[in-house]
Amino acid sequence: MKRIRAPGSGAWWRARSSGIALVWALLIALPEASVAGPVDSPIPPNPCGTKPLKLAFVADGIGTDAGGTACAGAGSVCVETMVVCKHAGKTGSTPMDIAVELFDASGTPLVPLACASAVPPGGGASFVTSGATLPSPYVGTTPITAGPVSPLGSLRVLSTIPGKTACDVTVIDTRGPASGTTTAAPLWTSGPTITKKKAPQKGD
Question: Which residues are CB-contacts of 140 (< 8 A; sequence separation ≥ 6)?
């Protein structure tokens, strides 16, 4: 009979074989079934380059009706989201890839990522969700086609050089004369909470 100490207790358990000890260890190591969300979800491969993406920012309270119910329909949020990022590095430094990934209200990541490749120092990229036709200046160079995010969810900005990435996120109210379409400005906007990455990442 082999004696096995149960983790976290002073008691000793008796097992008939070392195989029971292995089963116990595996059960202790199994993670809880949960959705990781924008901070802890594994970062996907870079869709527009070869260098790995890293977490730069997380923003809460964002939304889009892309791929879902029209703005006037039940369950829609009547908002779209714009993300504007800049390469804040010095002239002559390495260009960066920037990507935006949306998460629904449960913390599940949505695909595809929107990605801008080889943004030069001093240059920028703007991303806009695709649930409504927005007037200028709410026009992005890179569309975010993932969605819907209704009720409001979150997003994260990924970058190959997160320490040199500066971003602004705006939530835009799209309620207008046509369902799902805003034809006139100004629009009501709000700035969601933007948080820098929570912890150092390998490679920083």
Answer: 82, 83, 126, 127, 128
Burial of 3 (0-12, 13-18, 19+ CB in 10 A): exposed
What's the CA gap between 130 and 102, in Å, rounded? 12
Q: Which two tokens stand for residue 183?
A: 């034809």
CA–CA separation, 90 and 83 (whole Å): 22
* Residue range 159-163: mean pLDDT, rounded: 96
pLDDT 10s digits, 186-198: 455 666 766 665 4
Residue 73 CA from chain centroid, whole number: 25
Q: Model confidence at 183, in pLDDT bands (50, 70, 90)?
A: very low
In contact, 100 and 144? CB cutoff 8 Å: yes
Tally of CB atoms within 10 A around 27: 8
